[in-house]
Design brief:
The chain has 152 residues and is of the alpha+beta class. It has one domain. Helix content is 21%, strand content 28%. The chain contains three helices and seven strands; from the N terminus they run ββββββαβαα. The protein has a five-stranded antiparallel sheet. A hairpin with an 8-residue loop joins strand 2 and strand 3. It is globular and about 45 Å long.
């Protein structure tokens, strides 16, 4: 499977729900990996949620930095959904991902402008460690998305 930064994936039967216990399909944005020289290769996947009500006034995630993907602008998505920048990306062993290719559907790819916005918001968030941010910076650069601020 050839994944590029910004690839949208639908992972059917995603095994690790963050909230609740229901095993269900989950949408992800492929953000990159930790590089070819890592002892154990990891990929970074940002998840989205359709539970938009949590981000409204009085909701459990009200006040979280987020972005709403509306299907009228982002036709690759089946429903309006949100990326929560206060929710760290999943770090998944690359081999595990490859072993579950049958459960993965490529749904599209985000444009460079949107990817720059995602990176810049993750950089401002406390959700990612410096190491993860450096890996993302390298991945974005390797994908031709350059001139991004480097994590401090």
């Amino acid at each position: 499977m050839n994944l590029e930064v910004g690839t949208l994936l639908r992972w059917n039967h995603f095994p690790w729900p963050r909230y609740g216990t229901e095993i269900k399909p989950r949408w992800f944005i492929y953000l990159g990996d930790n590089g070819p020289f890592a002892q154990i290769a990891f990929v970074y996947l940002a998840t989205t949620t359709t539970q938009i009500e949590h981000f409204k006034s009085g909701g459990a995630r009200n006040g979280h930095n987020h972005f709403k993907f509306e299907t009228r602008q982002f036709a690759s998505f089946d429903n309006d959904c949100i990326i929560d920048y206060d929710d760290p990306p999943y770090a998944i062993k690359k081999q595990y991902l490859l072993n579950h290719q049958a459960d993965l559907e490529v749904k599209g790819k985000l444009n460079e402008q949107t990817l720059r916005m995602i990176y810049n918001n993750l950089l401002k968030s406390d959700a990612c460690s410096k190491m993860v941010l450096l890996d993302l910076h390298s991945s974005f650069n390797n994908a031709g998305i350059t001139s991004l601020k480097k994590p401090k």
